[in-house]
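User: Predict the complex with magnesium ion.
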Amino acid sequence: MTFTANEIRKALNDGEICAFYQPLYDTVTSKIKSSEALARWIKPDGSVISPFFFIPVAEESDLIMDIDWYIVELVCKTLVKQEGSSRHRISINFSRRHIYEENFTEKLSAIVDSYELSHKLIEIEITESAMVNDAQKILEWINAARSAGFRIAIDDFGSGLSSLQFVKDVPADVLKIDKSLLSQNCENEKERIVLESIFNFAHRLHMRTVAEGVETKEQLAFLRTCGCERIQGYIFAKPMPEADYVAICRLDKNAEEPADILQLQSPASAVNLLMGVIFRRYPLVIFSNLTRNSFYMMAYQNFTSTSCPSAGVFDELIMHGAETMYPDDKEAFATTFDRENLIRDYEKGKSEVRLVTRQLGDDGVYRRVETTVYYVKSDSSDDLLTITLCDNLPDK
Ligand code: C2E
Ligand code: MG
Ligand code: MG
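Assistant: Here is the predicted structure with magnesium ion placed in the model:
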């Protein structure tokens, strides 16, 4: 089945292109959280043509841009029909051609505003393969859309041309992991390692994760252990017409007696929540290996946040830290957290080392900081490891 651009354009003008919706579910609670709009061509005889047969042709010219903008209008109309808690964010696929479209963000804002909808309800999906060329242009495009309040998802991550190097610099909110990375039952050890690393990578960069194309219970069980937040796949629902989507959102909302989250929670997601609490409580969390003289910042939102590298040599970190201390506190800081001294304290049986100092912030103001080094043990290493929590204390 092949179509020409003219046939597709005619279908668009005749209103035969429409949006189907596929819900995304919360991995732990199995409730609908958002959805993706997927173009379909409905022929007058009622047959449904998959985008596979017309999107690639449309992609060859600016016709794809007209289709995408048309889908934006349809999505807004759907959102207007939904109300209250049955209304969820909808993500829309945008061809890479939009990256070069002038005033893209203004145009999207104008359409969404004309329906009096919040920009937060719209997520922009851009496929990872669009990210290979012209990094600067893409970053500008994404930043503009994000500052207007739209969410950004990187689609089809892992489908081929991924550049971790580049994705790490993209300020995206969501990473959608391509279905090609998931085998039927996720039982291959190497495949699991690759997936676990991707989820880890995304979470460290504060991106939410979606697994696409989830079809089996085994895949779902494995994804739960990875802390993957959202599931999109036939295991829960296929893409469906608007009326069905609106109806299941309403039902999902009315479903009585939500299950107790504590009964459903996988250990990984519970640990993620706990980490969230720790990162909220302690703006600076450092993981260090005293034996190897290395460190990295697990969280770094302290008031000195622009002045220190986020990974490197432990001795240099302490030297750098001492430089930012109030003159009277410099020596105490450098001695207490000197690596040799910390190792000696551990050997003497201490389980933690704590010190309060006054530290200079980027704004030129000294603040009281409590630094606590906890010795920790890893099953996989004999090295002496520590987790350091830094707390900003109130002024006296
Ligand atoms: P995509 O954005 O990666 O969308 C996900 C695709 O995976 C959809 O295919 C969806 O139906 C399919 N899928 C979801 N769950 C499962 C599953 O459990 N198993 C399997 N085997 N497949 C699953 P669909 O709807 O055929 O769309 C194909 C592609 O066409 C989309 O991939 C997207 O790249 C493109 N596309 C669709 N609509 C639009 C549009 O409005 N604009 C643009 N630019 N591209 C679109
Ligand atoms: Mg997509
Ligand atoms: Mg995809």
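The mean pLDDT is 91.
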